[in-house]
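Supplementary Note 3. Input sequence used for the single-chain structure prediction.
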Amino acid sequence: MRHGRITILWGSASGLTTGTPLPPLAADISGPGNGGLFPADVNGDGATDLVTMNVGGDDRHRHPRPLQAGHPRAGGPRGLPRLPAGPHGTVGDFDGDGTADLALDEIGYQRGTPSGLTPEPSWPVTDVNASAYASGDFDHDGYDDIAFGAADATTGPAVMGGFVRLVYGGPTGPSRTAYFSQASAGVPGTDENGDLFGHSVSTADVNGDGYADLAVGAPYENIDSVANAGSVTLLYGSANGITGKGAAFHQGGAGVSGSNETNDHFGGAVWLRDINGAGRAGLFTSATNEDDGNGRVWNMRGTASGITTSGSITIDATSLKLPPPVSGLSFRSGLGR
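The predicted structure, written as discrete structure tokens, is reproduced below.
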């Protein structure tokens, strides 16, 4: 059996330095971290812990342990259904008590306490068959909120192309809920069968107004007559949370390099991050199947009025001067993970 191992690479003023492999988990657990690695202070002691979701046989397990060399936290695995590929969960302080909580696929909400994560789900959750998760304070009330991307959900609002379910945090934890799709008022685009709106989601403040905004990928969106070209929708936060106000981006738009082509899957991954300390997050997105499967990543800047395509850049295997062979790399596959 291929058990795998998680290794922490420590940062410093000169970049990444030494690496510390974490002790192996139980003998029946393979693919440690395969379901996601979540750095979070789950007991409020000021030290970052590392919560791992792991696959062993047909079971799912999560293990919290301090993110410190040589001091693994005790705690046995909890068996649940097999993980889908990729990180299926998100971290945030949903009840404002100063400890990080988790929203995990098929497990539910795990509340952080001075003793660590609760062993059982802490708040009820409605399964929406989520394909992606993200968290941020969309209404700037001091409580983190959750975005569940439900690209092909069988429960929820009656839409054809997928939706995003928002659950807002509060003093008693996750509470009020809202749904957004391309059938919602103001949201760019048209709700069409198989768009996979919500396949990827990411949150950050792109315009510096203090409210987290939401990027949503729809990699199977048809653009005009081009099938599965893909698009990304940006929805803005406000005092009332996420609204239908936003903008859509695709390769046929002004300032976005390339052109819409069949099965490019633009928006296959989205990632909002402030990488230059400007106080506004930029948008990174990708098209795995661009250039006959080679893949490509776009970066667009955040401004006071939102994301701009002016001065946007693209990154691919050629621009990074990766050694051959570079064909069929699906470059970007790890974006945002």
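The first strand starts at residue 7 and ends at 9. Residues 57-86 have pLDDT under 50 and may be disordered.
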